[in-house]
Amino acid sequence: MLQLWTRWVRHCWADDAVRQLPSGLSDRLAAHVRRVERTHSGEIRVSIESALPSSYLLQSAAMKTLLRQRAVDEFSRLRVWDTEYNNGVLIYLCLAERAIELVADRGIQHKVDDTHWAKLIGSLGESLQAGRWETGLCTAIDAVSQTLQTHFPLASGQHNPNELSDTPSIR
């Protein structure tokens, strides 16, 4: 019970994500995603939340399980699964927990080892802890893009139809 109460307080008092992020970061990240998506047919989305919704906080599951569940729910809400080649990737941050999750659609997930994604998450985590938000997120976006380019490159003269918004979801 104490664990649920502590969890509830931490999330209820979490600062608004928009105020925590450097000014203009959303626009710069959107431009970066737009630029890297020109090299492959995949789609990259970024979702940053201040805290988990209360419906998650009332569950007794371990926080790691709740964060993964929330990331998958965001993957669905943002329709990252809705791409022609099933090669969308979501980078999810929960600021109250200082947690990062990555959800890859089945088209790319079957081609990439989980240790690859774990390494990418670890690198992003180090950057965020050091306060290098933009550098860390752009490096993570670049790494996801490079992975997508390896497995879903564009043919000569082909372009990415940009099936999803490039603007990060920040809530």
From TrEMBL:
The chain positions of domain TPM read 27-146
Tell me the domain of life.
Answer: Bacteria
Which sequence ranges are marked TM in the entry? none
Q: Which Gene3D superfamilies does the protein's record reference?
A: 3.10.310.50
Q: Which InterPro entries match?
A: TPM_dom (IPR007621)
Q: Name one Pfam family in it.
A: TPM_phosphatase
Return the protein name.
Answer: TPM domain-containing protein
